[in-house]
Specification:
Layout (H helix, E strand, L loop, with lengths): L1 H7 L1 H5 L13 H5 L12 H7 L2
């Protein structure tokens, strides 16, 4: 995401409208599905780096 901010600028990224289609409202739990992992869960950066070795 940092590369996008560098490319387009922080203000332009902040001004992007997020559109939720009718009937696509997410529950609190569903909103967490695409968010950051909870502490101590998920893959570490070392795990990801090892995929490319």
């Amino acid at each position: 995401m940092t590369s996008l901010i560098d490319l387009f600028g922080e203000k332009e990224i902040a001004d992007i409208e997020v559109v939720v289609e009718p009937g696509e409202e997410l529950t609190e739990d569903e909103a967490l599905l695409n968010g950051p992992q909870m502490a101590g869960e998920g893959l570490s950066q070392d795990d990801i780096d090892n995929l490319f070795d």
